[in-house]
Write a structure and sequence with these properties.
The protein is mainly β and about 150 residues long. It is built from no helices and ten strands. A ten-stranded antiparallel beta barrel has the order 1-2-3-4-5-6-7-8-9-10. It starts with 10 loop residues before the first strand and ends with a strand.
């Protein structure tokens, strides 16, 4: 069985990344930077691996996405240069139409949180990704990182 959920992401991308200076403190101060993303879809679409690089921020990270046909969900793991050789807790979820929503429980700087990734506009030339945290079990969310993607030439 072939899965096509993340086929839109295959290839090389440039992106404009936007992050909150400090999450979960009520801040509205953001910083922006450019990044590249190189993505491979494998395992008949059930596996996706990408590398995000933003040299000006000394940021490099990898994402691993694996689809569970039995559960009909994706698990997405993230690791970066600063993660100490560990994968983050995976966010878990699925796509509905052209939007994928993935969540997990985690801890941010000692505070228990709910993490949410949303992939949207996946059927366009400019897909969008965002990360948000919740300290009240998903009743309210603070978006703290967004990325707008364009195909690299």
């Amino acid at each position: 069985m072939t899965n096509t959920d993340f086929d839109f992401l295959a290839g090389r991308w440039t992106s404009r990344q936007r992050r909150l200076v400090k999450a979960l403190v009520g801040s509205d101060e953001w910083y922006e930077f450019d990044a590249t993303l190189d993505c491979q879809v494998m395992l008949d679409g059930g596996g996706v691996f990408d590398v995000l690089r933003a040299p000006e921020r000394d940021l490099e990270g990898v994402a691993l996405r694996l689809f569970s046909p039995q559960e009909q969900v994706w698990r997405i793991w993230w690791a970066s240069k600063t993660s100490g050789g560990r994968l983050d807790v995976p966010v878990v979820g699925r796509f509905t139409d052209d939007t994928g929503t993935f969540e997990c429980d985690d801890v941010w700087e000692g505070t228990p949180i709910r993490v949410r990734y949303v992939w949207s506009r996946t059927r366009t030339e400019h897909p969008r990704w965002e990360q948000a945290f919740s300290t009240d079990d998903g009743q309210t969310w603070e978006v703290n990182w967004t990325a707008e993607f364009s195909r690299a030439s």
